[in-house]
Structures are given as structure tokens and as C-alpha cells.
Amino acid sequence: MRVVAAMSGGVDSAVAAARMLDAGHDVVGVHLALSQSAATLRESARGCCTIEDAGDARRVADRLGIPFYVWDMAERFKRDVMEDFVAEYQAGRTPNPCLRCNESIKFAALLDKALALGFDAVATGHYAQIVERVSADGEVVRELHRAVDASKDQSYVLGVLDEDQLARAFFPLGDTTKPDIRAEAAERGFSIAKKPDSYDICFIADGDTRGWLTKRLGEQPGEVVDAVTGDVVGSHQGAYGFTIGQRRGLGLDRSSLDGDPRYVVGVEASSNRVLIGTQDLLGVDVLRADHARWCGTAPEGEVRVGAQVRAHGEEVPAFARVHADDPEVVHVRLDSRLRGVAPGQSVVLYDGTRVIGSATIAETSRAGVPA
Fold first, then answer.
1. Which phi and psi (to 5°) does residue 316 adopt?
2. Are 38 and 203 in contact (CB under 8 A)?
3. Which stretch of DSSP H or E encloses residue 88?
4. 48 included as an active-site residue
5. What is the mean pLDDT of residues 101-125?
6. Residue 266's domain is classified under what CATH number?
7. In whole angstroms, what is the distance from residue 80 CA to residue 66 CA?
8. Among 77, 188, 332, 350, which one has the highest count of C-beta atoms within 10 angstroms of its own C-beta?
9. Average pLDDT, stretch 47-58?
10. Is 101 a catalytic residue?
11. Mean pLDDT calculated for residue range 52-58
12. Has residue 202 been placed in a domain?
């Protein structure tokens, strides 16, 4: 196959490209330029897509003897990921930009361009597995499964991929642990074998999400309100800077509170109010989610699933039911309550290690308690 290897400049994508080459594929390395003003150097392990990263990717490609290109997708990334991120926070929701990037950039824009240029598939350094099985009618079906290394598993952020995208995707690292990947990179002579992993939000290099949002949205003073009594107990400079489950930085007038800690239990974008309450108000076990993406055929009726609402969160046993009139809406009833679940987050559904699909949480509630 002719394969585009997405090369970020990190150790994972480097080894993924090398493994695709070892498997006999015709591989071309591509680095995605996603920043409109790429920094020269990374800030420790935060951020990505710097000029340094592009250089690291090119050096690996040269060592492998494969062609290498930089594809400028900064404008698409700004529109589909960064502007979506701002709009979601402004609407009082908590988005996951990694899922949006995988959906809109790596397996839409990148894959579409690769196919248009005559390539057959895209390979990335994500920790997940593609498992092939033969269906009852004799067709080969490709399923998305969790990685062997549970601590690095990234199947959650790949839950937005549909059946057609999975048919043209390769994840060569899914059967290997991270320490073994670093060891393999060193054996191959890659200078980036010990390069630190990037983490947090790639386009917020200093990790200050609230500060980054404030620069784009400006200060929007409002009230912090007790969710039970309705009393004003503090103030803030923008409701967009808060997310459900948050405890620190609430700007409370603690003289009017008892000694129990307070958490954000709601963000009202329309009134620019932040609602706070005690921990017992955080637990939810009923989710309504939309924008469902199925990694195969959508389930029918009520099915038993595992539900995960954070990239490295716990999987909770649950029942899921796709809306009878709209396959993009799914209702999930968790066996036990989870705290700090916010609209805008994604719920990814599993059958064992297999990813069934994902959806964006629109509403949360507690069984027997009005939403």
C-alpha cells in the first residue's frame, strides 16, 4: 500500500513510520503544520508543532530514506479545532480538542488529501489497535480496540472515526508499551528516542487555558452563585473560564459559606453565571449525547456497554440506547454516578476492548432527579 505516515516530530510517530516501512508499504512522511506562528522551540513537554518538531520529523524521515513533506493545515486547524474550542467554552461547555483534531484534521483533511493524491491509507503513532475479523457474509471488517498498554491507550480520542476511516487507518504501536517504543527508537538510531511526550492542549503551550481564552474573549464580569440558595457568593471575569467539577480559582466570598469545599456544578452561558455547590451535587448517572459517530454499525435497541467520559478516566458499566428517530443521539445510563461530567465532553462506548462509537454530551442528570 501507499501510506502517508503522519510524523509529529515525536518518538511515537517516528517508530510508527518505521514499522510501516518494515511491513513493506510505500511510505511517505508528512508533518502537519498546524500553527500559524510556529515557535522555534517547545516549552518543555508542553505544546507541539514547533519548527523544532518539524526538523525532528525530517531527520527521522531522512534516516528511514523516505520522502518527507510539510502540509500546511494551519487555517483548517484554526477553524475546526481552535475556533470550535473557543465557541464551546463560550457556550458553557467543556470540549476535547484532541477528538476534534482527529475527526476534522488527521482523519478528514489529512486522509482526504492523501486519498486525492493516490495514497491508500494514513498511519499515526496513536496507541490503539485495529483488529480485523470476517463477518457472517464473508466481508473483512476492521474494528478499533484498546491498546495493549493501558496507561497509554488512546482509543478514547479515536472514538470519532467511522467505518470508512478505520478501513484506511493504521496504528502500528497498539501492541507495544511505551518503554519498548523508546527502546526501539534508540535501536533504530533516532535522536528523539528520549524526547519528552507532549501533553495538555497542544495550542496552549503554557497550560493556562483560562488566560488563553481571556485573550480571545476579553473579560466578562459576572456572578458566582450558590446553586441551592441562589445567593451571590463571589464574582468572576468570564464564565467561559470555568468547567464543571472545578474547585480552585472560584473567586468565592468564603465568609458567607460553611467549611465544606465548593465546586462548579453549572455554567450558565446565557446569564454569565457560575453555579457552585457541595460535592454531592456533582454526581450524575444519566447522559444525553449528540453528534454520535459509530465505528461500524450503530447499535440497535438498548445495549450493555462500558462508558468512558475522559481520555484517561475510568470505564463505567452502562446501558446505551440510540434515539429511535435520530441515530446521532444516544442516551446512556451509568451503573454508578460519575463526578464532574460536563456538557461538551465526549462519552466513548466500548464492548470489551472494542470501541463502539462516541458522542458529545449535551445534558447530564441523575436517575430520579429532574435535569
1. -115, 130
2. no
3. helix 83-90
4. no
5. 94
6. 2.30.30
7. 30
8. 77
9. 81
10. yes
11. 92
12. no
Domain end (from 137, 166, 187): 187
Annotated catalytic residue, options 48, 49, 98, 202: 202
**Which residues, 6 or more positions from 342, have their beta carbon under 8 angstroms from its beta carbon?**
93, 94, 243, 244, 245, 267, 361, 364
Where does the pLDDT of residue 312 fall: very low under 50, low under 70, confident under 90, or very high at 90 and above? Answer: confident
> Which domain, by its residues, includes 342?
284-365
What b/e sequence results for 16-34 when a residue is b if at least 16 CB atoms lie within 10 Å of its CB, and e otherwise? bbbbbbeeebebbbbbbbb
Residue 43: pLDDT over 60 = no
pTM over 0.85? The answer is yes
153 lies in the same domain as 240: no
Query: What are the C-alpha distances in Å from 168 to residues 107, 130, 162, 164, 320?
Result: 9, 10, 10, 7, 28
Q: Could you tell me which residues are annotated as the binding site for ATP?
A: 6-13, 32, 125
Q: Which residue in 48, 49, 98, 101 is the catalytic one?
A: 101
- Cα distances (angstroms) measured from residue 307 to each of 213, 317, 325: 30, 6, 22
267 lies in the same domain as 288: no
What is the rounded average pLDDT for all residues in the chain? Answer: 91
What confidence score (pLDDT) does residue 42 get?
A: 47
Contact between residue 173 and residue 185 where contact means Cβ atoms under 8 Å apart: no
Nine cell digits for residue 190: 533516532
